[in-house]
Design a protein that fits this description.
Layout lengths: L3 E5 L8 H12 L8 E9 L12 E9 L2 E5 L5 E4 L4 E3 L4 E8 L3 E7 L5 E3 L11 E9 L10 E7 L6 E5 L16 E6 L1 E2 L11 E3 L7 E6 L4 E7 L6 E8 L3 H8 L3
Antiparallel strand pairs: 1-10, 2-3, 3-4, 3-5, 5-7, 6-7, 7-8, 8-9, 10-11, 11-12, 12-13, 14-16, 15-16, 16-17, 17-18
Amino acid sequence: MRGPRAALVPALMLGLLLGALDAGAARAGLCLVGVSIRDAAYADPSPAYGHGAVANGEWAHLRYSHNGQTVTVAPLEGAVFEGPRPLPRACAGTVFAVESSLTKGSRVVEFDGQGKGRPFSDWIGQPHRWLSLVGQVSWENASQEGPRSVFPLVIDRPHLLGDLVVYGPTGPVGAPDDRPPYAARVLYRGVTNHRLGAADTVGGMRYCPDQPTGVVLATMDWRAVLRLEFDAEDDTIVQATRFEGTGPESFAAALACD
C-alpha cells in the first residue's frame, strides 16, 4: 500500500504560510514548484448557497497569480467556493479549492495556472455538507501524478462526521484509482478544525526538527486539542497526544516543538 509522507502547509496562521511551507519541504525533501501560485484567495461573497457554516465563507470566485498573471475562476454553475481560503499545491503550480454544489455538497477541485479545473474528489452527495482543507501529504511512491506529488489532507464534515482524510491514489500505478477523482482514505476519526459559524479554521500541520510530522486538531466535542503524529515513514498516525481545553494556549502547546 502506498502511504503518505506528511508534508506541507498549515491551515492556520496565513501570515506564516510560506515559512511553514519551506520548513515542511525541508523536512520532507520536497520541491517548492508550487510557489508559482501566489496570493490565492476566494473573492466576491455569494449568497447563492446559504449554508452559513463558515462566517462570510461562500464565494463567487477564486483568484490567484500565476507567473505574474492574475487568474480569476468561477465555480461550476450551481455551486460556490466555500471556506476561509484555498490551498496552493506544492510541487505542482496548481491550487486546491473546495467547491460546494447547491444539490451535492462539497468536493475538492484542483485548478491549474490557466484556471482549468479538475475534480480531485467526488461530491459528498448532500447539500450543506462541507470539506475543510487542513494541509497536504506527499506519497512516497510514484503515481500517475508523478513521483513527488502531494495530495490534500481534509476534514470530512467537520461539524457532523469529523474524519481526517487524504484524497490520493492507493492502488498500483495505472490502476483505476490512480487518477482523480480520488476516494478518501481515513487517517483518524472524531476530529475537527472548525467551529460551526467561525470565520477561520484552527490547528494545522506541525513540523519540528528530529520529531515526527504531526497535525493538530480539536476533538469533535471541543473539549481538547489533539496532536496526531505519523510513524517513522509518515505512513500512519500512531500517536495522539491530548491537550485539555481548546483555547489559544492549548493549540500553541500542541503546535510547539518540544
